[in-house]
Design a protein that fits this description.
Order of helices and strands of chain A: EHEHE
CATH architecture of chain A: 2-Layer Sandwich
Helix content of chain A: 25-40%
Shape of chain A: elongated
CATH topology of chain A: Mth169, Chain: A
Oligomer: homodimer
Largest interface: A-B, 34 and 34 residues
CATH class of chain A: Alpha Beta
Strand order of the largest sheet of chain A: 2-1-3
Number of helices of chain A: 2
Largest sheet of chain A: 3 strands, antiparallel
Chain lengths: 79, 79
Amino acid sequence: MIAKVYVTLKKGVLDPQGKAVQHSLESIGYKEAEDVRIGKFIEIKLADIPKPDAEKKVKEMCEKLLANTVIENYRFEIL
Amino acid sequence: MIAKVYVTLKKGVLDPQGKAVQHSLESIGYKEAEDVRIGKFIEIKLADIPKPDAEKKVKEMCEKLLANTVIENYRFEIL
């Protein structure tokens, strides 16, 4: 079973890495990139446990370790 | 228009960051996380251009800047 977790900065939180990438894109000619935000994409290979348990566990993992919920949002899917 | 880009390490490429996260998860009791791979999730706000153009441009951005195609795969969607 695979969990895919997406961690993104909350709206309003500055993203200097994204800004740097946006400027780089602009400098190589991609002026249509108006804003860039960079987040994390985490793939977790899970042992075979029932899907509801997996959902509970992954939510806990996000809250405790994977995302800083003060400044980041997360969402995940279990496949 | 928003482009969502997912950049992941190719299979076989070592991911020390992922390993560190996996060990941290294990040490706080999540033994069901058997493997962790960490990639990037990039959101690009695009100027209003026709969708086929946007697809072409984003593909180019990935090849030229966002992904290192020697060790990384990318995929994207335009919304």
